[in-house]
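In response to reviewer comment 3 from the previous cycle, which asked for concrete evidence that the modeling workflow produces usable outputs, we include below a single protein chain processed end to end. The sequence was submitted unchanged, and the resulting C-alpha cells are shown without manual editing.
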Amino acid sequence: MENLDQNNPIAAETSTNSNPTATTQAGTDIRALNELIQTESAFLDLIKLEMNKVIIGQPQMVERLLIALLSNGHILLEGVPGLAKTLAINTLSKTIEASFSRIQFTPDLLPADLLGTMIYNHNKEEFVSKKGPIFANFVLADEINRAPAKVQSALLEAMQERQVTIGDATYNLPEPFLVLATQNPVEQEGTYPLPEAQVDRFMMKVVLDYPKKEEEKLIIRHNVSSAGFPKPNKVVSPETILKAREIVKQVYMDEKIEQYIVDIVFATRNPKDYNLPDLEPLIEFGGSPRASIALATCAKAYAFIRRRGYIIPEDVRAVCHDVLRHRIGLTYEAEAENVTTETIINTILNKIEVP
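The workflow returned the following C-alpha cells.
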C-alpha cells in the first residue's frame, strides 16, 4: 500500500467490499438514503459559498469545521498566527442564524469570566445567576492554552455534558453548541499545556499550514481592495443544522468498517498485536473509546459532505489524522527520535488491512 499523505485529497470513492447494495442486511435502503442526503445537504454549498467570500484557501480547515458542525463535536485549530483561524470560525458562525461569543483566553482569566457567577440583586434581595459568554451556540476559545488549568477545566462540563453549573443551579446550553478553540504551537512562553482529559473532549485537532503562493496573492488582493472586506450572509438556520445531524446518524456503516475503526484504535494501544512492535516503545498511551466514537462519527459526516449514504474506508482514512493526532501520547524516546503522532498514524494505516 502506498504511503499516506493527509494533505492530499482522497480521490477514491469506491471500495471492493464496502460499497453496499441497494438494501443492506440491516434493511437500510441506500438509494433512498442517498436521495435524502442529496436534498438535505444542499445547505452545505450555501455555507461554503459564503465562507469562500472571506476565506481564501484552507479548504481542509473549512471542511473540518463543517464535519465538527455536523458531528456535534468540538474542534481545536492549531497553527501559527495569521492563518485565518479566528476569521474562519467567526465567518462560519455568521453564516448561521445563531449566537456567537469570543473569549480571549489570558493568564488572568477566571472560571467565572467564562461560565458566569452569582450576583446580588438589591431589588429582589437575593442572589441571581448571571450567565457568562459560554451561553452561545458558537464559542470561540481564542488561544486556549494561554489560560491556566482551572479555567481550561471549567470548559469540561460544558463541552461534555452541554450544561453549566452556577451556584446550586444547572443550566442547559443552547443547541447547536460548538466550542472552537485555537492555539499557537510556536510561542510556548506563558502558555499552559491542555490537560489530556480536556484534549480528549475535542473531536478533532486540525493542524494548519501556510497558504500556497497563488492563494497568498489573492489574500493580499482581498485585503487591500477598495471595495472593502466582504461580509458573509446568514444562510442557514440552527434547525437545519440539527436536522442534518439526525440524518448524519442514519449514514450506513458496514460491520467491516466498524472492525476497521476498532483495529486502527486498538493498534494505537497494543501495536504488538498488529505486527507493529517498533511502535511499542514510542507510544505511552493510545486512543480511548472516545476516539473510536469520534472516528465513526466524523466518517459519517465526511460521507454526508460527499453526498453519500454509506461509509467507505477512504472516509475513515480521510479524518483519521485529525481524530487521533491529539489522542496518542508519545514517550520520551519518541520525542528524542523526533517521531510524531503523524508518523505513527501513517504507519498504522499502512499496516491495517483495508476492508
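The chain has two domains: 1-28+252-355, 45-250. We consider this sufficient to address the reviewer's concern, and the full set will be provided in the supplementary archive.
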